[in-house]
């Protein structure tokens, strides 16, 4: 009974957040913009894996038509963030260990490639530094979801150094899918806090102008993160 009340309160809170996003649609209420909002909300942790997205609730919160919302759902299904189950509806996807391995393969190509392609220093590191500081502040406040979000922003800002809108768009989807893994972890502090020091180290090496060393540190970082997450995720999913 208590769990049911808690679940309804959580759903009401999430829908209230979506209502706040309605202003982002402006006068151009397109399926792509709706998909952008939902993708960001998934990446921020508002919709855990396995969550059913009610058409009526979401379209009411955003103030869009059913056809617009269905097209947004279709776009996010194509991005592997949602799944449509016949006669049941649309759900936030639960990723597999193989998915996780492939996500890291893409991340390594994109993040290391962005650093490798840097020209002469100094580099535009304002967004990278802001993400590092946000993560450190979240850790101090024991705000683990905020820490997870700051860590994702750090990696987005690394890819943004390439100056490619297409790479930025691809990275948003990849990291939103990765965020679905984080929800299954029993102890988010354990998975995110140790990487704060490494985020700071990579930032400082980039600030010094040593891009090859930053790439080496980043490649090692991603390899360690993949091994840690894949092992823990496989164990957690098999036990659920």
Automatic annotation (TrEMBL):
Annotated CDD domains: WHTH_GntR
UniProt keyword annotations, A-Z: DNA-binding, Transcription, Transcription regulation
HTH gntR-type domain span: 28-95
Residues annotated as signal peptide: none
PROSITE patterns according to UniProt: HTH_GNTR
One Pfam family named in its UniProt record: FCD
Alphabetical list of InterPro entries matching this protein: GntR_C, TF_FadR/GntR_C, Tscrpt_reg_HTH_GntR, WH-like_DNA-bd_sf, WH_DNA-bd_sf
Record carries keyword Transcription: yes
Superkingdom, natural source: Bacteria
The name this protein goes by in its record: GntR family transcriptional regulator
PANTHER family (UniProt xref): GNTR FAMILY REGULATORY PROTEIN, TRANSCRIPTIONAL REGULATOR, GNTR FAMILY
């Amino acid at each position: 009974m208590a769990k049911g009340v808690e679940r309804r309160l959580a759903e009401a809170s999430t829908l209230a957040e979506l209502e706040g996003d309605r202003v982002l649609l402006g006068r151009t209420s397109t399926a792509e913009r709706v998909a952008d909002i939902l993708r960001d909300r998934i990446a921020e942790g508002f919709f855990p894996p396995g969550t059913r997205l009610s058409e009526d609730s979401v379209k009411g919160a955003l103030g869009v038509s059913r056809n617009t919302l269905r097209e947004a759902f279709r776009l996010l299904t194509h991005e592997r963030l949602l799944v449509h189950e016949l006669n049941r509806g649309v759900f936030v996807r639960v990723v597999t260990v193989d998915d996780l391995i492939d996500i890291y393969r893409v991340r390594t190509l994109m993040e290391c490639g962005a650093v490798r392609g840097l020209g002469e220093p100094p580099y535009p590191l304002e967004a990278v530094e802001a993400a590092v500081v946000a993560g450190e502040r979240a850790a101090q406040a024991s705000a683990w979801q905020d820490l997870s979000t700051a860590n994702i922003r750090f990696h987005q800002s690394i890819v943004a150094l390439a100056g490619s809108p297409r790479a930025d768009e691809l990275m948003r989807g990849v990291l939103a899918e990765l965020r679905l893994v984080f929800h299954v972890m029993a102890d988010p502090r354990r998975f995110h806090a140790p990487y704060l020091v490494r985020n700071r180290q990579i930032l400082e090496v980039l600030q010094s102008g040593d891009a090859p060393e930053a790439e080496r540190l980043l490649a090692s970082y991603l390899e360690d993160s993949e091994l840690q997450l894949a092992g823990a995720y496989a164990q957690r999913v098999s036990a659920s």
